[in-house]
Amino acid sequence: MRWLDANKSVEWWNSEELVVPYRCKTDNRVHRYFLDFAVKFKEGPIYVIEVKPSAQTKRPVRKKGKAQSKFIKEATTYTKNMSKWYAARAYCEERGYVFEIWTQDTLESLGIKVLSPARKAKACKTKRKAKLPA
Predict the structure, then answer these.
(1) Could you give the CA distance from residue 111 to residue 125 in angstroms, rounded to a whole number?
(2) What angle is formed at CA 17 by the lines to CA 32 and CA 8, rounded to 5 degrees?
(3) 3-class SS of residue 13
């Protein structure tokens, strides 16, 4: 978000304000998908961006030694994501928007420093301690 604020080529942006209905293949019910970002650059179309861990963008593979419950959870997450992304792409195409999925690699290629979950938790803990009164 700081990158968007600081980027002079960004005209405007919002977070989780764009909602797209989708039918999920895991339960065949209609749900609401809150997309991570909509960004309008000074030049070009509106970009609709979903930020996900790279692992969630790839079809899970059942490897020897992987617990069945873990594989089922990964497969369910992947199926839900694919249902969402199919609906988001159709929504964006109808409006002339560009839908993109950004992973850690995408963010790092843009010069955005990505913290690992452990480093992020440590940073949050440090900030909370700093805010406590003496």
Answers:
(1) 25
(2) 145
(3) strand
